Amino acid sequence: MLRKEDFVYFGKFLKPHGTKGEIGLQSDGFSLDDDCDFVACDIDGILVPFFFETKRQKNSDTIIVKVERMESAEEVRYLTNREAYIPRQWVEESEELTWSYFRGFKAYDETLGFIGEIVDFDDDTINTLFIVENNGQEILIPAQEEFITGIDHEGKEIMFDLPEGLVTL
């Protein structure tokens, strides 16, 4: 039996791709390598694995997968908009986490406590910034590894040690 604590959020299934049982799978921060041949979906509180017959990259954050035992667009449509999870040990071994992976994480500072929820990031400048929302207000936090003191993947929380005065709530 698959245990939820052994998995982390990967992304979600999109709509069927063609008529032969392929479907888009959008990542929320990192890519699958050849070792990862399945994702799991929470179906009625139980993680159910869906194995790939084939997978190919569509663009930087989407792959097209052919799911085993699903032969038509109608069958694979069952997965549309379902969240997909991958084994935690694969993520911990991966160095491919991107800043977008942290969307939806709760942000905390060691001094200030809860800052808000990371809703997006801005990488248009040299310094990437997390966009954090707190009571309708937008707070920008530098997405610098030196400020990150802890990450709870399962609880979707990130802890910062930010310079005094950088964030005012």
Enumerate the spans where pLDDT stays under 50 for 5 or more consecutive residues. none
- Oligomer classification: single chain
Q: What is the average of the pLDDT values?
A: 86
Summarize the amount of helix as a percent range.
under 10%
CATH class of the largest domain: Mainly Beta
SSE class:
mainly beta
Number of strands: 12
Please name the fourth-level CATH homologous superfamily of the largest domain: RimM
Instruction: Enter the CATH topology name of the largest domain.
Output: Elongation Factor Tu (Ef-tu), domain 3
**Alpha-carbon distance between the termini?**
44 Å
Q: How would you sum up the major sheet?
A: 6 strands, antiparallel
The outline comes out as elongated
**Order of neighbouring strands in the sheet with most strands:** 3-4-5-2-1-6
Task: Give a written overview of the molecule.
The chain has 2 domains: 4-93, RimM (Elongation Factor Tu (Ef-tu), domain 3, Beta Barrel); 99-160, SH3 type barrels (Roll). Helices cover 6% and strands 49% of the residues. It has helices at 73-76, 88-93; strands spanning 7-17, 22-27, 38-43, 46-59, 62-67, 83-87, 106-109, 113-122, 129-134, 137-142, 148-152, 157-160. Strand 4 (46-59) and strand 5 (62-67) form a beta hairpin. The radius of gyration is 18 Å and the shape is elongated. The mean pLDDT is 86.
Key traits:
single chain, 2 domains, 169 residues, 49% strand, mainly beta, SH3 type barrels, Elongation Factor Tu (Ef-tu), domain 3, 6-stranded antiparallel beta sheet, 6-stranded mixed beta sheet, 2 helices
